[in-house]
Amino acid sequence: MPLKAINPTTTNAWKNLQQHFDQGGKDINAKELMQSDPARAKEMKIRWKDFYVDYSKNRVTHETLELLIQLANEVELSDAIEKYFSGDLINQTEGRAVLHTALRNNAEDIFHGEKNISADIRKTLAKIKVFSTAVNDGSWKGHTGKAITHVVNIGIGGSDLGPQMVVDALKYYKTDLDVRFISNVDGDHVMETLKDLDRETTLFTIVSKTFTTQETLSNAQTVRSWFLEDAPTDAVEKHFVAVSTNLEAVSNFGIAQENIFPMENWVGGRFSLWSAVGLSIACAVGFKHFNALLEGAHEMDQHFKDQPLEGNIPVVLGLLTIWYNNFFGAESEALIPYTQYLQKLAPYLQQGIMESNGKSVDRNGDKVKYQTGTIIWGEPGTNAQHAFFQLIHQGTKLIPTDFIGFKTSLYGNKDHHDKLMSNFFAQTEALLQGKEEAEVHSELKAQDKSPEEIERLLPFKLFEGNKPTTTILIDQLTPKSLGSLIAMYEHKLFVQGVIWNIYSYDQWGVELGKQLGKAVLKDLEAGKEVIHHDASTNTLINRYLD
Ligand SMILES: O=P(O)(O)OC[C@H]1O[C@](O)(CO)[C@@H](O)[C@@H]1O
């Protein structure tokens, strides 16, 4: 069954939320509420396994939360969750189920229509295990009999961002293999990646769900030609493997049948790192850690599926986004992990969240009259503090921010970790508390400033406070906790999409640019003056051709 199409703005909860917002909700001051109700921090938190999620620094009261839960109930979120996990065709515009959760469910048999897909999932997983183990232990040899030392993943979007983020995030757990990524069709990017590689010891994984993506196919061709400059044609089978749903196109490319890792249409590209797309992850960190990543995600799936809405992490996070996006008019959300290992989390989630929820037509095919997808951005703390935190603290925009931190670091080094985490805690405190006039005044006075100077400087040194943050404190960055964290955001964006009554699992918005790109490429290849585009595009192309 498809998801029900319920316009959220027609629900009683939405109207009540609007009224609640108008009649005081917009002025909710989390700092004051924290002072007047010390129980708030205990009540507005969710403790789950090694996660501690504190959302008490948000502009919400218990009433706000009740109304948001009422909204989730009125749009039948629980029914939608059930359909998501049961393999219903919830990606209706593409006629597909959304079953990436099945990829990490080793406990049950999952059905896609009548078909039990778990056997195939386990078969592919076993193939990943055998292959990644052979590459790591040196029993997979290159064509001259040497073991593999480098793996290069060629893919883009979901066939790149997820594996790349995870490989970077789990660097601490890595094997001896050097795993790299080529994504952009920028030839310089390709050559920079290849320039110090030894053909005899390098393995290329070509990853493309469709195997029609221009960037990936061009890069794969270039890399293949580079490889064959100094290797015989039959060496390809020892150095090229592919991951795709399009088995025919892969074999036409010249990849041996046994070197193809299949994936299925019910896995969206941006949710595919759990599938054979994660082959480079298994190579980089070993199968054991890849499996732990899947386990962590599965545990979050269970939590999301079974936990009542009030205590359900992805649900609460998703509802907070709705509150800020649709009532306060906040346009973006920042994600600040306090670990350098997660430096690629924001770019990864930009695709996950913005490609999913950047939609303006609802599930009835009507133009929405409310805001949908948020803009996602972020960088690791503390670097972020020295780059854009000024705007979060004192700018004019409301930017709800997730702070993600870990109780222990991986190398120990407590001295550094205490410094890192002191910033983590202090920033959310500063964003909540702000700094009032009296405090600024006495600080300036203590610096022996004259009364005139104090008066002049005072407005610039004030901090409003009441800037919303959610703290996600996790015990340690492990493959398992990373799996749970990623799944948490996957489910959060699902919640938002259900409430906004949009289709989160298609991505038609990327097609037009691709189509026009093909046409422009023909013009560039023809090399003749163009006149059939708009005036600006004609001028630019002609200048390029000149
Ligand atoms: O894996 P493929 O088919 O090469 O697609 C790559 C990416 O391109 C997109 O379709 C968007 O351009 C993504 O959704 C997808 O992850």
What attributes characterize this protein structure?
546 residues, alpha/beta, Rossmann fold, 48% helix, binds 6-O-phosphono-beta-D-fructofuranose, cytoplasm, gluconeogenesis
Distance between the termini: 56 Å
Tell how many strands the DSSP assignment holds: 13
What oligomeric state is this? single chain
CATH class of the largest domain: Alpha Beta
Mind summarizing the main beta sheet? 6 strands, mixed
Question: Helix coverage percent of residues?
Answer: 40-55%
Strand content: 5-15%
Radius of gyration over alpha carbons? 25 Å
> Averaging pLDDT over every residue, what do you get?
97
Q: Write down the CATH topology of the largest domain.
A: Rossmann fold
Inertia-based shape: globular
InterPro entries: G6P_Isomerase (IPR001672), G6P_Isomerase_C (IPR023096), Phosphoglucose_isomerase_CS (IPR018189), SIS_dom_sf (IPR046348), SIS_PGI_1 (IPR035476), SIS_PGI_2 (IPR035482)
Pathway: Carbohydrate biosynthesis; gluconeogenesis; Carbohydrate degradation; glycolysis; D-glyceraldehyde 3-phosphate and glycerone phosphate from D-glucose: step 2/4
Protein name: Glucose-6-phosphate isomerase
Catalytic activity: alpha-D-glucose 6-phosphate = beta-D-fructose 6-phosphate
Layout of secondary structure:
Blueprint: H1 12-22, H2 30-36, H3 40-43, E1 45-48, E2 51-54, H4 62-74, H5 77-86, E3 111-112, E4 115-116, H6 118-137, E5 150-154, H7 161-169, E6 178-182, H8 187-194, E7 202-207, H9 214-228, H10 236-239, E8 240-244, H11 247-253, E9 260-262, H12 279-285, H13 287-306, H14 313-328, E10 332-337, H15 345-357, E11 375-377, H16 389-394, E12 401-406, H17 414-433, H18 437-446, H19 451-461, E13 469-474, H20 479-500, H21 511-526, H22 535-545
Parallel strand pairs: 5-6, 5-7, 7-8, 8-9, 10-11, 10-12, 12-13
Antiparallel strand pairs: 1-2, 2-13, 3-4
Helix pairs in contact: 1-4, 4-14, 6-12, 7-12, 7-15, 12-13, 13-20, 14-20, 15-20, 18-19
